[in-house]
Amino acid sequence: MKHQLRRTLRSQIATYDELYTLLTEIEACLNSRPLCALSNDPHSPTYLYPGHFLIGDPLTQLPTADLTNVKHNRLSRWQSFQQQLQLFWNQWSTDYIHELQRRQHWQHSKPNLRTGEIVLLKDDSTTPLQWPTATITDVHPGPDGKIRVVTIKSGKGTFKLPLSKICPLPHVNNEL
Length: 176
Known about the structure:
Blueprint: H1 2-9, H2 16-30, E1 36-37, E2 47-48, H3 50-55, H4 77-100, E3 118-121, E4 133-141, E5 147-154, E6 157-162, E7 166-168, H5 172-175
Antiparallel strand pairs: 1-2, 3-4, 3-7, 4-5, 5-6
């Protein structure tokens, strides 16, 4: 988190209140990630978040305008820190997904994905505290029998995606 915060803030000077607000929002981002799936029901999947341990429910945030591509000198002070939060979110969520997708097939073999498993979608256009999830409806093995492509069902419809665009969530009964 510190590394991402340094990359995001760069040389920007903040007051105590601005930095405190930004760190509180970053804390909400860190505690919004799904840890594992709680249900086996592919029609209404539920997830365990760190926010469950803090407030009993997942953390939420009102949607905001995307400020990541707006020049810094055109923003008010508040919008500038909202932009910093969005930049932090983009970098941190991407790194988190990459950490979950870490390829360890050279040391350990993992079982193939199955129909009904819950996955995180790798989507660069998500807003802070939003983690797009989907359920695998069909698997498409390659010539070697390994799953390379899956068909998923999400709130936006049914799609066929390669494994590089998804990240399986562990199930609470199986891996925790």
